[in-house]
């Protein structure tokens, strides 16, 4: 099935590293890639994630507007991982917490049920 895209002004020009967020028809929040990538790289990752979770539509927007203000607050980062033990890929959903300098990094981890709606 073909994925329907709503772009909101997002472009995939070469060397466009502006952060982008996405929301599917079956997500409860906006999603961001937990890595610096081009908008084209983000599009490819989002297409893969949409296929993995059965999304039919995706809305994209820049994470920050032209005045450097964050456009959405309910945003969760995602990463694709590979398990040699299971011999397959899977996704993790999490946000990094702000911690004092010199403190070990901490995260809030989310389950798939907290991200995606069920039919």
Secondary-structure blueprint:
Elements: E1 4-6, E2 20-24, E3 30-33, H1 39-53, E4 57-62, E5 75-83, E6 88-96, E7 107-110, H2 112-115
Parallel strand pairs: 1-4, 3-5
Antiparallel strand pairs: 2-3, 2-4, 5-6, 6-7
Outline the structure in words.
This protein is of the alpha/beta class and 119 residues long. The protein is built from two helices and seven strands, in the order E-E-E-H-E-E-E-E-H. The chain has helices at 39-53, 112-115; strands at 4-6, 20-24, 30-33, 57-62, 75-83, 88-96, 107-110. Strands 1-4-2-3-5-6-7 form a seven-stranded mixed beta sheet. Strand 2 and strand 3 (30-33) form a beta hairpin. The longest helix has 15 residues, at 39-53. The two termini are 17 Å apart.
Please indicate the percent range of residues in DSSP E strands (runs of 2 or more): 25-35%
Name the helicity range.
10-25%
* Tally of helical runs: 2
Question: How many angstroms does the end-to-end distance come to?
Answer: 17 Å
Please trace the helix and strand order, writing H or E for each element: EEEHEEEEH
Main beta-sheet annotation: 7 strands, mixed
Mean pLDDT: 95
User: What is the 3D form?
Assistant: globular
DSSP, total strands? 7
**Major sheet: order of its strands?**
1-4-2-3-5-6-7
List unreliable stretches of 5+ residues: none
**Structural class category:** alpha/beta
Which radius of gyration do the C-alpha atoms yield? 15 Å
Task: Provide tags for this entry.
2 helices; 34% strand; 119 residues
Compact summary:
With 119 residues, the chain is α/β, with parallel strands linked by helices. The chain is built from 2 helices and 7 strands, in the order βββαββββα.
